[in-house]
Structures are given as C-alpha cells and as structure tokens.
Amino acid sequence: MSDTIAADPMTTPFLQCLVGRIRAEDAFGAWDRKSDTTLLKEYIITKAERRLIPIIGDPDPDTLGRVETFYQAVGLAIERATGVIATPMMNMSHEGFGRVVLLAGRLVVFSRTLRDVHRFGFEDLSALAADGMKHAAQAVAMIEAHPELARE
C-alpha cells in the first residue's frame, strides 16, 4: 500500500473507505445527495479553527464517533489491501485520552495513544488521506511480517 497521495486525495483507498463507512451509517438516505467532500468536512479543522478550541476539554459524542469511524476506515483499508479483517478497539476516558488498537487475528497491527481527542481533525483532505494511508500501510506491513498470526 503506497502512502503517497494522488493529486486528488478523494481517489485514495483510505478516503474511499472512510466515505463508505460514513454512508453506511445513513440508514434513511438523508445523505444520498451530499457529495463525498461535504461528508468529510467534519474531519477538517483549520489552524484558525483549532486555535478557538480550548486546550483542555471533554470530547462530545459526535467527535468520539468521528474518531471511531476514522479507525474503522483504517481497518477497512487494511482488509481491502490484505484480505485480513482488522478490527478497531478504542478505549477512551471522558477527558479525551485513551488508546486505539487494530487487531488482525491474534496480531496487534496498529496501536496508538490518543490525546486531546476533542481537537481531532485535519488541516485538509490531503492531510486526512495521508494520515489514514500511513496507518493502513503500517498495519499492512505488520500483517506481511507476521501473516501466520494475522490469519488465525
């Protein structure tokens, strides 16, 4: 899995997976007419917007949902690249600190400590795509290094 971003970040496997996960949550078709970039606007927080968010704060349920959907999309990108299901598990305190791991079989393919989750977001779509692709590529490399554990 290449971690280079095409001229159009919307063509990256990760953003396609993220949009697919977001649309999967729309049981009634309310978002059918919304473009993919419109659905991803929740993930974009400019530097100016980030400055307005307090340094210390508790994440709201919508933010926690976005974080969870982001890592579900990473897992889906891993599955598409390897054929191995990668399941995210997230443990988060009410203060926005925690950990997310992605498991494939008996193998931890990705692990990350999360801090300041109430400020979760990316500068633009390219940064969002690059971060998701980087995480997926790391996990794919782990699966390729230990296929016997990942496929159990």
Strand order of the largest sheet: 1-2-3
- According to CATH, the homologous superfamily is Protein of unknown function DUF269
| Average pLDDT figure | 91
Oligomer: single chain
Query: Helix count?
Result: 6
Order of helices and strands: HHHHEEEHH
Low-confidence stretches: none
- Helicity level: 40-55%
Radius of gyration, rounded?
16 Å
Number of domains: 1
Please give the CATH class: Mainly Alpha
Structural class: alpha+beta
How would you characterize the largest beta sheet? 3 strands, antiparallel
Please give the CATH architecture: Orthogonal Bundle
Total number of beta strands: 3
* Net shape: globular
Structure description:
With 152 residues, this protein is α+β, with helices and mostly antiparallel strands. The chain has a single domain (9-150), classed as Putative cytoplasmic protein, CATH 1.10.3100.20. 46% of the residues lie in helices and 14% in strands. The protein has helices spanning 13-24, 36-40, 47-52, 61-82, 125-145, 147-150; strands at residues 87-92, 98-104, 107-114. Helix 1 (13-24) crosses helix 4 and helix 4 (61-82) crosses helix 5. The two termini are 22 Å apart. The relative contact order is 0.20.
